[in-house]
Design a protein that fits this description.
Largest sheet: 8 strands, parallel
Mean pLDDT: 97
Number of strands: 22
Radius of gyration: 24 Å
Structural class: alpha/beta
Strand order of the largest sheet: 13-12-11-5-2-1-15-14
Shape: globular
Number of helices: 16
Distance between the termini: 23 Å
Bound molecules: alpha-D-glucopyranose
Length: about 575
């Protein structure tokens, strides 16, 4: 069954660019990026060809978790600029045909939010019930749930003797969605930004908002099974969607933590009752042996293909997914699954092609389009991320992991790997800022930077530009079915997309040695063409027997409609 695209679903043929403002572009010398910096780069994004920008949080925040700890939903963080700057960004982006998607963090607020400040230490505060409070059990924490950033998920409010829940840092208190006043506030916040003309919303860890109300101890895990895709989550999303998203025609993407296909089919069901699409992370856990992130491990290639197959076939005709490798929480994909040295350019292109030819909406994280790499930090002082520094303390100081081992793990897994400043040119601080950046620039910026990429017609940048364009030109990429052609192949990830009129094959060699495969028997190679590849000599007729060079990608198209005529 092929998928039908309605006119108002512009996001089905769109590609979206994620900006992490703190690391994108500083218009001055503060060392942190800002909104004026983003405005100055809109023409660069226009050249790349993206349809929308997803802006990670720019609201007022003490920045314990870089903006995912919001202290005022109606104000812009002065580090990023003013509301007037934001309005200008919206206007300037729209003038270039680029839409703006805002990040909305409503599973929790900062503990500096006035609601929490009023609730803390006062059981009678009208805001007390905005958060989740529990009495101690046996003189200690109410249950054994763990924070995603390490340690207990409960923090004591000394004055009242009760604990509050924080699934993330202790400065990020979980909101109590059972309280209808909280849901009313959320609707008001989102409406405020929609009224301004914002085109859509990315909803942070949105599948964690509904907690099982008896808050049981988890004998076999860290508690996540009691709040992930929780009891009332679909009901809550339908309520918000009806009140706000449907009213404003907003596109929405929900970040789903440890979710399932069945839930995602419902979150993104094509009747638009909840969200437009979902982010899931299962394909990015292929280097977490037994689910453990904090260890060094190669990735499991066969598992990667199985996961893509599960989600591509499972969502087709039922829901819609985001396609992505990178974001501000994930290491750089070229360092993670590619080769960030000898075959950096080839592997960055191959990885791009292998997700962009799937069904879904691609998200490109700043710097991915020029093949930026992990920085290879060697000292703990170079890290800033709250999760990384927490885990260093827990693993080295409490669990006895050696410093060297932990540094090697962080170099592979830390979220700071993707948060290093955007590399704009080969000048001081990579042209990111005139002052010293908040996080050290990767030392390879003299060779890897946007200026170089825009000047080089063979760069990763122009390959991504082409991928974005192909999605608009070739309908099967959006509508077609998906089939994994070589699930057991040790180095090739090759799949076929089919619609009534087109068949597209995307072949990808994930390793640095030559390898081969044979195209499916029924595929008429004599009528097929190469659409794109990452080796410049790829041309001519398509042969049944395909030999792929290191990290080679080949996109092959057969237009069956033309054949019939
Ligand atoms: C999401 C964000 C991440 C943040 C967390 C808590 O996973 O992407 O950066 O730390 O939510 O808000």
């Amino acid at each position: 069954m092929t998928t039908v695209v309605n006119d108002d679903q512009w996001w089905k043929t769109a590609s979206i660019y994620q900006i992490y403002p703190k690391s994108f572009c500083d218009s001055g010398s503060k060392g942190t990026g800002d909104i004026q910096g983003i405005i100055s780069k809109l023409d660069y994004l226009k050249l790349l060809g993206v349809d929308a920008i997803w802006l990670t949080p720019v609201y007022a925040s003490p920045m314990i978790d870089n903006g995912y700890d919001i202290s005022d939903y109606y104000a812009i963080n002065p580090d990023f600029g003013t509301m007037a700057d934001f309005d200008l960004l919206l206007d300037q982006a729209h003038q270039r045909g680029i839409r703006i998607i805002m990040d909305i963090v409503v599973n929790h607020t900062s503990t500096e939010h006035q609601w929490f400040q009023s609730a803390l230490g006062d059981k009678n505060s009208p805001y007390r019930d905005y958060y989740i409070w529990k009495d101690p059990v046996d003189g200690g924490v109410p249950n054994n749930w763990q924070s995603k950033f390490g340690g207990s998920a409960w923090e004591l409010d000394e004055q009242t003797g009760q604990y509050f829940l924080h699934l993330f840092a202790k400065e990020q208190a979980d909101l109590n969605w059972e309280n209808s006043k909280v849901r009313a506030e959320v609707k008001e916040v989102i409406s405020f930004w929609a009224e301004k003309g914002v085109d859509g919303f990315r909803l942070d860890v949105i599948n964690l908002i509904s907690k099982q109300q008896d808050f049981p101890n988890d004998d076999i895990g860290d508690g996540r099974r009691f709040y992930t895709d929780g009891p009332r989550v679909h009901e809550y999303l339908q309520e918000i969607s009806e009140a706000v998203f449907q009213k404003y025609g907003s596109v929405t993407v929900g970040e789903m933590s440890s979710t399932t296909l069945e839930h995602c089919q419902q979150y993104s069901s094509l009747d638009n009752k909840e969200l437009s699409m979902v982010f899931n992370f299962h394909h990015l856990k292929v280097d977490y042996p037994n689910g453990e992130k904090w260890t060094k491990a190669p990735f499991d290639f066969l598992q990667l293909k199985q996961i893509f197959n599960h989600w591509q076939t499972g969502l087709n005709g039922k829901g819609w997914g985001a396609l992505f490798w990178c974001n501000h929480d994930q290491p750089r994909v070229v360092s993670r699954l590619g080769d960030d040295q000898q075959y950096r350019v080839e592997s960055a292109k191959m990885l791009g092609a292998s997700v962009h030819m799937m069904q879904g909406t691609p998200y490109i994280y700043q710097g991915e389009e020029i093949g930026m790499t992990n920085p290879g930090y060697t000292s703990i002082e170079q890290y800033r991320d709250v999760e990384s520094t927490n885990m260093y303390d827990i693993m080295v100081k409490q669990q006895g992991v050696s410093h060297d081992e932990m540094m090697a793990i962080l170099a592979q897994k830390s979220r700071d790997n993707s948060r290093t400043p955007m590399q704009w040119n080969d000048q001081a601080y990579a042209g990111f800022s005139k002052g010293q950046p908040w996080l050290e620039v990767a030392s390879n910026y003299p060779e890897i930077n946007a200026e170089q990429a825009v000047d080089d017609s063979n760069s990763v940048f122009y390959f991504y530009q082409k991928l974005i364009q192909l999605r608009k030109e070739i309908e099967v990429i959006t509508t077609g079915t998906y089939e994994d052609l070589y699930p057991e192949h040790e180095s090739i990830f090759g799949y076929e997309r089919k619609s009534e009129t087109q068949t597209l094959i995307c072949l990808n060699n994930y390793y640095g040695v030559e390898t081969e495969c044979v195209l499916p028997q029924g595929f008429d190679t004599s009528k097929a063409n190469y659409v794109l590849g990452n080796y410049s000599d790829l041309s001519g007729s398509v042969s049944q027997h395909q030999v792929l060079r290191p990290y080679e990608t080949r996109i092959i198209l057969l237009n069956t409609m033309l054949l019939d005529n």
